[in-house]
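Appendix B, record 7
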Amino acid sequence: MILEKPERVADYTARGWWGTRTLDDLFRENVEKSPDSLAAVDPPNRAGLAPGEPLRLTYAELDAATDRLANALTKAHKLTIKQAREIHQARAEPQARPHISVHLRGNIRLVPVQDILYFMADSKYVTVRTTNEEHLIEDSLVNLEKEFGEKVFLRIHRNALVATDYIKGIEKSTTGNWQVALTGLEKKLDVSRRHAAAVRRWARR
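Structure tokens (predicted):
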């Protein structure tokens, strides 16, 4: 679609300011002349911003990728009303963060969610615990629980969410209280009476 007046297009083209080739023309020209040259490069910190490792595509690889996408879109069936609603709902729902931002000696550090063993609330701060480190963030367990869900972090106490991937066992202490054992953590975490039934149900899945 051309938004400028035809007179201006003709004038600028005659002066040599504008050309007649499109972006696709320029891209195809580079595919033919330099197929092995880099065409698209992800930022090195992509892993901290979105899932997947940084990509480096040559013109030939990018051309093949666009062809595959075009073919997939061409073969795609018309969406039903139900599918359209599901897509709309998925887009409307906020996606969980792949990392947690923490302050470390005046800098901001990104801690991958997959490395976190548990969140522990204490006053207005929440402790973020990994295998080797602890950090404090200003957040609430309610928000974290809502964001990640119990498939990722299970509430075992009013002040604790534990990573389900690190749970290696649920056992009773000498006092008869339930405790959760986590991989990479020597200390066992107490399960409150209020959440004991839910934790046991999760363990029986």
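Remarks on this record: Residues 99-203 form a domain with the OB fold (Dihydrolipoamide Acetyltransferase, E2P) fold (CATH 2.40.50.1020). The chain has two domains: 21-92, 99-203.
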